[in-house]
Amino acid sequence: MYWRINMEHPIQELMQNISQKNKEEIICKKNYFVFLDGKDYFAVPLEAILEIVEIKNTNELITIPLLDDYILGVLNIRGEMIPVLSTLKMLGFTQEDVFFQYAVVIEVAFKTAIAAREIYEIISLDEKKIRSKALGENSSNIFLLEEFDYNNNIVRIIDMPRLFSSIFLK
């Protein structure tokens, strides 16, 4: 796996911070990328991320009619067309607007990007701080089975392989 990060100042600092941490500490912990979509905090395992692209102009996103509402459009990233998906819509949350500033490129079955309004931090989290989400909470969403507390907020960990296999194998 390669790491190709196309990021500016704030995100570069995050990547430098993670590379400067004690390697033993990182090995003993799980690493997550925390982002905000709408008003909700989500985390994706760091190893799933290929790159982060800042969207400077909304015209960069090419919308395609007659697609499912969770597909916001496609981005041309160095000649490669990457679909951009709404995390909130995929997970069944209501979403007032589709404003996002970043596209987090991941690879599950193929390259795709998830929209992120704000990027917060790359964190190394002790597995003991991750808790299973009670099945009866908020919804019967089987893609958010774990969560943790972060700066007085609940961060939901997205099970990306399960989410993508359920969406694309309909």
Strand order within the widest sheet?
9-1-2-12-11-10
CATH superfamily: CheA-289, Domain 4
In sequence order, what are the helices and strands, one letter per element?
Answer: HHEEEEEEHEEEEEEH
The top level CATH class name: Mainly Beta
Output the radius of gyration.
16 Å
Low-confidence stretches: 1-8
Taking the alpha carbons of the first and last residues, their distance comes to: 29 Å
Number of helices: 4
Which second-level CATH architecture applies?
A: Beta Barrel
Characterise this structure.
With 170 residues, the protein is α+β, with helices and mostly antiparallel strands. The chain has one domain: Beta Barrel (OB fold (Dihydrolipoamide Acetyltransferase, E2P)). Helix content is 18%, strand content 39%. It contains 4 helices and 12 strands; from the N terminus they run H-H-E-E-E-E-E-E-H-E-E-E-E-E-E-H. The chain has helices at residues 9-20, 23-28, 87-90, 160-168; strands spanning 30-37, 40-45, 49-54, 61-62, 71-77, 80-85, 102-107, 111-116, 118-125, 131-132, 146-150, 153-157. The strands form 2 sheets. The protein has a 6-stranded mixed beta sheet. A 6-stranded mixed beta sheet has the order 3-7-8-6-5-4. A hairpin with an 8-residue loop joins strand 4 (61-62) and strand 5. It is globular. Residues 1-8 have low confidence and may be disordered.
